[in-house]
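Anyone opening a protein record will find just a pair of labelled lines. The record below illustrates this layout.
***
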Amino acid sequence: MKILEADDHPLVRAGIRHIISQFEEPVEFLEAGSLDEALTLAEQHPDLDLVLLDLSMPGMNGFAGYYRLEDSYPALPIAILSASENPQDVRTAIEAGAAGYIPKSSSPELMLTALRLILAGEVYVPGKLLQQPDMRNDPVPDALTKRQQEVLDWIVEGLSNKLIADRLNITEKTVKQHITTIFRVYGVTNRTQLALKAQAGKHERDRR
């Protein structure tokens, strides 16, 4: 396994390195102190499993740096590791396709759990941020991106992940990532609950 941590604070990188050393399997840990260094290392190591990206290091300019990295390496999972706990930053990251959003205030145990979930293909967002007013689990269409709404529509129709992937010309892994986010937005844990809640929300909006 190979993970790149991009953060301009050596102390933060050292802390993440220590947490990752607790993984059961060996991990090659790479470090970058700026966006340009991260782009260079991503080019030199096409077998990267994950990039942990700080939003405020040199060269980032907020999410512009994320989009630059994502555009250059669209198949590379990127998770945001940030001091910001602004719900809008969380929403922007997830809508942009980030593999997760991890606050730097997280405990080592929580961060380790988050990293394991992300490496397993899940999308991680801490529950405390989902409870913020701007991130509440309101079952309304504008809480989802256009692609997530498309995935939701096919789930309501009863299609499998494979069929949804075929219809939308995306991978099953991407479908699963979208479904994880949709589950969180609707506050459900399975497809049946999701379909019922989505249909109930649609009926409520139709009556207005």
About this structure: The domain at 137-207 is CATH 1.10.10.10 (Arc Repressor Mutant, subunit A). The beta strands are 2-6, 28-32, 50-53, 78-82, 100-103. The radius of gyration is 18 Å. The longest strand covers residues 2-6.
